Amino acid sequence: MVPVRVARAQNLFFSESEFKRSIQNALKSVKSILETTRNPVLLEDTDHTYQDKYALVEFVINSAIASYGNALKHVGIKDDILHQALEKTHDSKLRVELEFVGTLWSDFVKEQERQISRQEYEKIQKQVPDNENTRDGTTATTETLTIKQKVWDVHHTMNLSFDLTLKCKDSSPLTILQHSTQVPIVLTHYHQGETKQLINAKSKEILDLHWFLQMIPRGTESSFVIDRQRQDTCKTPVRNENVKDAVEFAKAVHEWSCAVHSFMVLSRQFLARYDAKIQSLESSPPTVTGEDVFVPIVPLLENATVLSKSDLEEMLKLQVKTLNSVTSAMVKKYSHVDFFSSEYLLLEICACHLKALPQRMMSSVAYVEHLLKTQLFQAIGKKINGDDFDKFMQFHNRKFFGKEYSPQPFSYSVRRPGFYPDGVISVESSTATTTGTLEGFVPIETLVQAIAPDKVPSMSIPVDAATSVDLEGQVYLHGWMQHVWQEGGHGKSHRIVARANEFSRFLLIVGTMGGPNVFVPKHAIILKDKDEVIIPLLADILPSAKEFKDAIASLSPEQQEFAKAFRAMQLESSVFGLCVIQLKPQLEKLLNLPEHSLTKEIQLTQDLMSLFVDYQIPSDLLSFDGPDVLEIRDKVAAVRGHVEAVLNVIEGQKKKQLQDAKAQYKAEAMMADDGMVDAWGEEQHQMMAGASMPQPRTAMMATVEKQHTKRSRRLRADPVMYEAASMMAKSFEAEEGGMDTAMESDFETNIPGSQKESLNQVTSSPLIDFTVIPKILDQQLEKHDTEGSLKSTILKVGEPWERLRKENLLVAPRRSYLSDRDREAEKHKAMDLLKALSRSGSLPIIQSELHVIVSMSHCFDKNIVETVIEDNANPIQKVEKSMLMLGSVVHGMDKEKLLAPPPKSSQDLTIDAES
Questions:
Q1: Residue 151 burial class via C-beta count within 10 angstroms: exposed 0-12, middle 13-18, buried 19 and up
Q2: Nearest CA to 207 among 170, 256, 174?
Q3: Beta pairing partners, 580
Q4: What DSSP element (H or E) covers 52?
Q5: Which of 209, 297, 748, 840 has the fewest CB atoms nearer than 10 Å to its CB?
Q6: In terms of Cα–Cα distance, which of 775, 779, 792 is closest to 540?
């Protein structure tokens, strides 16, 4: 049995070169029926207005409707049938369908024997395809051969019916065209076991004509008109409900005709394998193209006007003429073959033509939209993407907002007033070229307000469960609006970049707001001496207020309450923060030194950092405790003396522990060597006695390993001892000829958990609670954002962290990636330093900057070009409204006050110049 597959319609797409080639061919036929003085051209080749595009799309679809009618008439659906169906559809709820049913099956008739000559048998053998796995059942004699043959009748039927169907019950269909053929097939070679059927295939295709009947012209008025007054649904000449219905019907026609034609072609190809007459005609099948039959759908203008109704009638006459001509030629060509009845040829020609009509219509409609995009690119001078829009908005916001309220780049120097910066921190976003190639990173721009001290509560950082450090520095509130386009690819990437200058240090803490006055640290790191740290920043977009409201509308009250509570948690946790702490000012405060006294004390500052970070030395051993009347240099000298004294103690401890460790190491090594010699002697004795590998060696090695493990644990418990042992091991290796050691270089650190404090509820206090800002924005979005395009966004740190560090001044910087363990270790170092600088929370941090970031995303369903052209929307106006909404919350004032004053007119500028 041979399977028959019916192909479906392919996805249609617009090809400018193919479209213009087909239109140029059609234009030759159009000019042949018009007066010689007339010269219609494509839309792009003549001056026209935006409204002319509407008129052209209406003309194209009206031409397609009339062309469909001519094709249906050609196959037998006359005007009286269409008008009768039209009247019934108006009077009652009838559904009008065009149904095609095609079947192809075989019946086994008999098996027979026949005598043939050897020459005839060899001829039959040559006709069998190479890939056939066959059996002939041949009996040979001297001159003749007796062969067994199987006889089948292959039936091929096709019915095309016009059906008026009620919604509740079916009525009798009206048969328009019918074809039935029986082809006998006699096989000498046949498949093993194939005795019942060669093929059994069926195709049933239904085309709903309801829209088409509604569009049939009535009198002199146009059948298809775009309702341009409906601004909610009519966006462009192409993007509106009327054109959408026309395109949907065109797709249905194309799919129906492709399925019908595919069944006919595959039926013909199957029979050609067994019928010599049909096989001889396969080189020139009865298939027609758009060039064989004129397609009267041409998007042409003449003097900025579409072609007239009389011109369309002439083109429709040419369509009918070429249809009749091609049909007559095909009937004449294939009349000697019984399979190709006139009904078969008529239906195949009509199916081919019905494939070309919707293709031309949809290509013409797509051409109008393609021309809009081309004109936009020509007006701007380039193809634009989301990055181009971001650059424009940066330029536009400087004029749109007042000078003090306009967005600013998120790039801040870490510095004391009047001093050279210690470094810089920035939040950056990737940029790309038009082709999507990564171009680099630039700082994001945010709406920012420096919060006055009387409007913000005293901020604190929980270091551990027992310690909280207060911040007395400046607090900034940032509003970041991202523009998210559906451009494919991986979208934008964001990152935090922190750089320290040479001989400078500062502390960077990344976290979230955990309450009105609590900044919860998630990550922390100390930057020093030309360090550069790059931290990936991820943006998780929450559902918009409208989407959330729609999603919970049909939930139960208990389910809604749970969803609202969970969303409230998400909104409050979306407040991101960066805290930068300068170390020198805090060191001066901690050590009771005057301001700026450590500015030029590079070595002293480095020694202090080492004592606090590496050895956790209490600040009381280092701070100045003399009389205040001393000079600054005397106070600094006193602190330097304290530092040197502590360093001398540490150095003495190192030397003593080094000597003790060296002596202990040698003793244990000697003991291990003695044990190994004794074991070796015993082993030799047993081997001489013919024994196998002795057990005492294993016990000895286990004893040595156990002693070494105990020694390693003791060393790891004391970092100074560990360092001394490492130095001793190197010395001992040089003295003793390089004995290997098995000491480990890593040790685990207990990680204290962060304290999670309960969040305070919103009160009537005039102080700002940053955690309620997302909730305020969400309430405004629910009221004003009817499209649901504005969405709250959660910022969080990603992986991997990248660090560029110079180990010393003589080597080039080396780039490395921080693992989870590295990041935890860096956080503990930073928290230990913060705890030391604040005397375990009793001393506030005097020089810090806390940047609180509230992020929103304006999401577009399409890319920027599709938004402008297909939706006929100006994204600039949409983003302006979003920025004003965000800015009013960040700055705490009415939207009107954020705007820049209107620009002066040219007359005002002239008066100012004259004065």
A1: middle
A2: 256
A3: 508, 849
A4: helix 50-75
A5: 748
A6: 792
768-808 confidence digits (pLDDT tens): 889 999 999 999 888 888 888 999 999 999 999 999 998 88
Buried b (16+ CB within 10 A) or exposed e, 70-82: bbbbbbbbeeeeb
**Higher local confidence (pLDDT), 675 or 259:** 259
Nearest Cα residue to 98 out of 261, 212, 8: 212
**β partners of residue 153:** 107, 184
Residue 143 token pair? 């001159």
448 HSE (CA, 13 A, CB side):
17
Instruction: Supply 613's token pair.
Output: 């970070």
Residue with tokens 């758009």: 290
Residue ranges of alpha helices (H) inside 490-543 are: none
pLDDT at residue number 915: 47
Residue 278: closest CA among 201, 348, 289, 270: 270
Distance between start and end Cα atoms, the chain? 99
Q: What is the pLDDT of residue 35?
A: 86
B/e letters for 446-470, b = 16+ CB within 10 Å, e = fewer, are: bbbbebeeeebbebbbbbeeebbbb
Q: Which of 10-19, 257-266, 452-461, 721-730 has the lowest mean pLDDT?
A: 721-730
> Across the chain, what does the average pLDDT equal?
81
Spell out the residues 6+ positions from residue 85 whose beta carbon is closer than 8 angstroms to its own: 94, 96, 162, 164, 209, 213
Continuous segment of H or E residues that includes residue 501: none
Q: Of 146-160, 479-493, 736-750, which range is least confident?
A: 736-750
- At residue 152, the 3 state secondary structure works out as strand
Residue 248: the pLDDT is 95
Query: Which whole number is the average pLDDT over 38-55?
Result: 93
Distances from the Cα of 472 to the Cα of 452, 458, 579, 771, 838, angstroms: 12, 7, 12, 20, 12
Q: Say how far apart CA 567 and CA 503 lie, in whole Å.
A: 46
pLDDT computed for residue 230 by the predictor: 87
CB atoms within 10 A of CB 435: 7
Residue 816 has a pLDDT of: 94
The neighbouring-strand residues paired with 351 are none
Q: Which amino acid is at 263?
A: F
Contacts within 8 Å (CB) and 24+ apart, 627-635: 632/593, 632/594, 632/597, 635/592, 635/593, 635/594, 635/597
| pLDDT attached to residue 783 | 87
Mean pLDDT over 162-186 rounds to: 66
Instruction: Name the region of 303 (left: φ>0; alpha: ψ -120 to 50; beta: rest).
Output: left
* 274 vs 612, residue with greater confidence: 612
pLDDT at 848: 94
Using DSSP's 3-state secondary structure scheme, residue 210 falls into helix
